Amino acid sequence: MTLIHLDSITKAFGQTIACSSITLDIEQGEILCIAGENGAGKSTLMRILRGLETPDSGSISFMGQEGLIKSPSDALALGIGMVHQHFMLASSLTVAQNASLGSELRKGLFLDMEAMNAKVQAIIDECGFTIKATSLIDSLSVGEKQQAEILKLLFHDSKVLILDEPTAVLTDSETARLFDTLRALKAKGKTIILITHKMNEVLAISDKVAILRQGMLAGLYRTADMNIERLSSLLFGTILKSPAKAENPEAKAKKPVLVFDDVCVKKRNQKVLRLDHLSFTLHEGEILGFAAMEGNGIGFLEAVLGGFLPIKEGRIISQGLDITNFSSRKLRQMGLCYVPSDRMSTGSCQDASVMENLIIVDRKKFFPRWVLDTKASKAFSDSLISQYSVQARSEMMMKSLSGGNIQKAILARELSQNGPYIVFAQPTWGLDIASTAAIWDRMKALRDSGRAILLLSSNLTEILALCDRVAVLCKGHIERMFINDASLNARILGSCMLGSKEEEQ
Questions:
Q1: How far is residue 490 CA from its own chain's centroid?
Q2: Predicted pLDDT of residue 504
Q3: How do residues 379-408 score in pLDDT, each as one tens digit?
Q4: Helix (H), strand (E) at residue 106
Q5: What's the mean pLDDT in 40-68?
Q6: Who's near 5: CB < 8 A, 6+ residues apart?
Q7: What's the CA gap between 59 and 479, in Å, rounded?
Q8: What is 2-236's CATH superfamily?
Q9: Tens digit of pLDDT for each residue in 336-353?
Q10: Using an 8 Å Cβ cutoff, are 75 and 50 in contact?
Q11: The listed CATH number (3.40.50.150, 2.102.10.10, 3.50.30.40, 3.40.50.300) that belongs to domain 242-336+420-505
């Protein structure tokens, strides 16, 4: 039965047409993937369905009735909910308080927290989630925060669940757990819509796939009729091959560029070390990867590398200089190139233009005598936009870009620098397959030119495709350092990430 009918939906932002005459039927009780490259219009189309954007033309029918969705509250009343790429949770509140926000249970004039906790915990238990109703959001891992976001929709009895790039920052095990949850929700009659660009996920979870290209619907297909080759051809016009394994398996005897010497980090008033006597050396012409499950220290390592978190013990040396506890500003002045995992708050200023975001790390060049050189700034930003295929214009506000294009803009800015080493944290998060392949090729070229690269990633395919050596973090220490040769695979890495002592054989 057709639950939702989108009829000739068109939406433009200035001169950019995000959606062009899209007509699409969504059936009740199905899992539909909306797939396409960055900027194809996926998120905009779903934001229109959620009532967060108003189409310039076209209409939406829900169970045969037209004109019911004019605002987010209208969509919510119909049971249409959305989990965005960047979570919308109040970190100081509990899981139950977030889930019930706006629909709190009361006992007279007062909130009935006991009843809310019980109702939320019952949903948690029914879905097999790993979180607790009374847990603070701030204490949860990324995967658990996503559970809390889905829980908000279930608390409000959403019939349609829209998830925007839900696995972008999840580990393989967290992704598998999420997919089990979605299948269980489908079995209960829920309609699931996934926005994704990951072909393996389309094939693994969906009943149908709607392919968008340049704001237009290229087709709606049964997933059972698809394979990787056909899907990649429909998405990109070419068949994309699986990435080759890193071609430089040995960490050759080259100059040390970055040394962590017995580095320890712990949170204030806590005895447990978050980084536990961490020691490693990064060499020129090498990609050193760090793989870890969420909560095992990789976030703390990124914060130390970015200059946002001081260490308690140990030393950090870069090219013979002791840079222990250098601030982010001082590291930037030394030429640090850093692509953060949080692209929205750490990696960019959403209320500034694309040009302002691209020139910010080289202020001396673009602000001679403290006055902006507009001509040079625009020429520089236009060049990076073209080189990295960012679907934007220099004068556009950063917040108007899709998540994938924000990420490409950050990568363009950081790779235009020439620091002694480059830190990549989840660098291809939100990028489509073609963009991911282009970034991987660029990272390999940088490595081959002699640059030193640290890669922090939850994507084991990415780790295995790029890295010369792989360090597995478990409970804040290096559980094992692997040479990335033919014997290493995702099973071995995954086992080690869980603390298993399984050998390479």
A1: 20
A2: 37
A3: 999 999 999 989 899 999 998 888 788 989
A4: strand 106-107
A5: 92
A6: 24, 25, 26, 60, 61
A7: 55
A8: P-loop containing nucleotide triphosphate hydrolases (3.40.50.300)
A9: 899 998 888 888 999 999
A10: yes
A11: 3.40.50.300
